[in-house]
Amino acid sequence: MIKIAPSLLSADFANLQRDIERVPNADWLHVDVMDGMFVPNISIGVPVVKSLRACTDKFLDVHLMIEKPERYIDAFAKAGADLLSVHLEADLPPAIHRALDRMEENGVKKGIVLRPITGAEAVIPYLKRGLDLILVMTVEPGFGGQAFMSDMLPKIEAIRGYINQYCPDCDLEVDGGIDPATAPLVMKAGANVLVAGSAVFGKPDPAAAVEALRSAGV
Ligand code: DX5
Ligand code: ZN
């Protein structure tokens, strides 16, 4: 089943609750955490996740674009994230495994993220230990509103193959430049969770935009 995860990065930060209420049909809410180091931009942190938790029951899918994410797993879990995802490029493999261990200890779902430069095969050791989600970036992380990188499609297909082989229940999410034109391409390649920021909150009717993504390519 396809899940649509509107990215709050494109919402109005002074009116997050109002904007969440505009997408009652969203499956998940995608929350972009940026530290100004791993990516050049700075977005939101632990207190905002805590406030979001208090104003919605929706599944909070928290994408950590931060250096050495192991340091912050406990804090984001306690703030109320349902799933945390960490970039493979944000630390050395043993530290990424420790970050995933901490997610398990905190009872949150665990995910890994790949920048465009990182190859599909990098996911294999993590799938072997068990994952809830792999996120394939289809733009360079850091900003909303960028153009979809179609050269990521073979990587999505390859990772879908690895998921089927090693950890079939793992979700495959894509993030960056997803709109009704690119959604069918990523779904065909094997993605089942679609993040969209500007294609949802940049539209006059965000709920209709969620449905447009869900039915794209059907
Ligand atoms: C970018 C973020 C995305 C961003 C996507 O680094 O990870 O979640 O909000 O924005 P769009 O859908 O506008 O490309
Ligand atoms: Zn994101």
TrEMBL record:
GO terms for cellular component: cytoplasm. Its cofactor is Zn(2+); a divalent metal cation; Mn(2+); Fe(2+). It holds the Pfam family Ribul_P_3_epim. Substrate binds at residues 7, 63, 142-145, 175-177, 197-198. One of its GO terms (molecular function) is D-ribulose-phosphate 3-epimerase activity. Pathway: Carbohydrate degradation. GO terms for biological process: pentose catabolic process; pentose-phosphate shunt. Its EC number is 5.1.3.1. SUPFAM superfamilies: Ribulose-phoshate binding barrel. The keyword Metal-binding applies. PROSITE patterns: RIBUL_P_3_EPIMER_1, RIBUL_P_3_EPIMER_2. Binds 1 divalent metal cation per subunit. Keywords: Carbohydrate metabolism, Cobalt, Isomerase, Manganese, Metal-binding, Zinc. InterPro entries: Aldolase_TIM (IPR013785), Ribul_P_3_epim (IPR026019), Ribul_P_3_epim-like (IPR000056), RibuloseP-bd_barrel (IPR011060). A divalent metal cation binds at residues 30, 32, 63, 175. The active site is at 32 (proton acceptor), 175 (proton donor). It catalyses: D-ribulose 5-phosphate = D-xylulose 5-phosphate. Belongs to the ribulose-phosphate 3-epimerase family. Catalyzes the reversible epimerization of D-ribulose 5-phosphate to D-xylulose 5-phosphate. This is Ribulose-phosphate 3-epimerase. The gene is rpe.
